[in-house]
Design a protein that fits this description.
The complex is a heterodimer of chains A (188) and B (193). With 188 residues, chain A is mainly alpha-helical. Chain A contains seven helices and six strands. In chain B, strands 2-1-3-4-7 form a five-stranded parallel sheet, sandwiched between helices. A two-stranded antiparallel ribbon of chain B has the order 5-6. Chain B has one domain: Type I PLP-dependent aspartate aminotransferase-like (Major domain) (Aspartate Aminotransferase, domain 2). In chain B, 56% of the residues are buried. The complex binds pyridoxal-5'-phosphate.
């Protein structure tokens, strides 16, 4: 997405081999109706029609999907209030797309270890995840000179965070199962 | 197993895809431009360009902004690899800005401090990529103001944030950025598969 015609034009070239069929962009007059020119080094990053059709069809349901995620988030917020976890604070300027529901364990208030809670939830059939491992600690980035300790706030987050199930099709009853499992993990 | 995220595909979605399979075009037909138009008008942005992944979108965004050898891109360490790798694809370099302890998004105060230091040793970034983690928009007004002051461009990684709003307006309208990228990966809010 952009509001700049110039950037949009450049991105259109880069997504498709740097090719143009627009005579105005060509270095000389077109050879004929078949003619195209490569004026940049681009890639084949085009979306297929099948993908476009699915995306287009889903656009109508975007708002109901996001509101359902907000409903689920409010339920989580209430259900988790009694547990030693930090629920995701929402800045008043924002209305989240709520792709993820991220909690942080208050490790000073539970004897359970982060990795143990995570493993327990997985054992209970809850497909929790962790978004994300701080990028600078990846081997590829460490080879460029980054090291653990460079971004302490990010690393603290990583030591405590868990992504709970969050999607529009999640049922209240499934959410209750998630919270019950988390309670057992944290308050043994 | 209750997954952490999952797509929802209705019969109408299936019918829409089947209709394309039975049409004249499987690629470079009329549907992708209609999808682009729908997303652009939903977000209130002038242009939408659909590509095959958000990773590709980040790459061509960096190319369009002229990222190359000697240029720096800064982003948050709490993000998917692609938000940083896009600069490396272009021969640029990557650095990170620590997160805000409450939103887990790139912290504008940490950004300002790092910019002041970078200005002194001539290593200001060309592009900053705020990532709207979990779908919650970053403090875009503050980041945009720093962009004006220090002369960097802004690419919002809104992979998690389609359908979200910042100051009451849809994410993707690019009011505070040059380019915004969405992902339609199947675990995301909306999918293209
Ligand atoms: C923050 C962020 N950026 C970029 C990407 C890449 O998206 P895609 O899978 O569409 O390439 C993802 C998806 O995992 C993401 O979460």
């Amino acid at each position: 997405m952009t509001n700049s015609a110039e950037l949009a034009g450049k991105m259109a070239l880069f997504r498709s081999h740097g090719m143009t069929r627009d005579p105005a962009q060509m270095t000389h007059e077109s050879d004929g109706p078949w003619y195209y020119q490569q004026i940049e080094l681009g890639y084949n990053y085009r979306m297929t029609e099948l993908q476009g059709a699915l995306g287009l069809s889903q656009m109508d349901r975007l708002e109901p999907y996001v509101s359902r995620r907000h409903e689920l988030a409010r339920r989580y917020d209430n259900l988790l209030a009694v547990l030693p976890v930090t629920i995701p604070w929402q800045h008043p300027d924002t209305y989240s797309g709520l792709h993820l529901y991220l909690i942080r364990l208050q490790l000073d208030k539970t004897r359970a270890a982060h990795s143990r809670v995570f493993a327990f939830l997985r054992e209970q059939g809850i497909g929790v995840n962790l978004h994300y491992i701080p990028v600078h600690t990846q081997p590829y980035y460490q080879a460029m000179g980054f090291k653990p300790g460079d971004f302490p706030e990010a690393e603290r987050y990583y030591a405590e965070a868990i992504s709970l199930p969050m999607y529009s099709g999640l049922m209240d009853s499934q959410q209750d199962t998630v919270v019950a499992a988390l309670r057992r993990a944290l308050l043994p | 197993m209750i997954p952490y995220g999952r797509q929802e595909v209705t019969q109408r979605d299936i019918d829409a895809v089947v209709a394309v399979l039975q049409s004249d075009f499987l690629t470079q037909g009329p549907v992708v431009p209609r999808f682009e138009q729908a997303v652009a008008s939903y977000c209130g942005a002038a242009h939408a360009l659909a590509v095959n992944s958000a990773t590709s979108a980040l790459h061509i965004a960096c190319l369009a902004l002229g990222v190359g050898p000697g240029d720096w891109l800064w982003t948050s360490p709490i993000t998917f690899l692609a938000s940083a790798n896009c600069a490396l694809y272009c021969g640029g370099s990557v650095d990170f800005v620590d997160i805000d302890p409450r939103t887990y998004n790139l912290c504008p105060k940490a950004l300002e401090e790092k910019l002041v230091a970078a200005e002194k040793n001539g290593r200001l970034p060309k592009v900053v990529v705020p990532v709207h983690l979990s779908g919650q928009p970053c403090d875009m007004r503050a980041i945009h103001a720093l962009g004006q002051r220090f002369g960097f461009r802004i690419v919002e990684d809104a992979s998690h944030a389609i359908g979200g709003k910042y100051l009451g307006e849809p994410v993707g309208n690019c009011r505070y950025s040059d380019i915004t990228v969405f992902s339609f990966h199947p675990v995301k809010i909306n999918t293209t598969a």
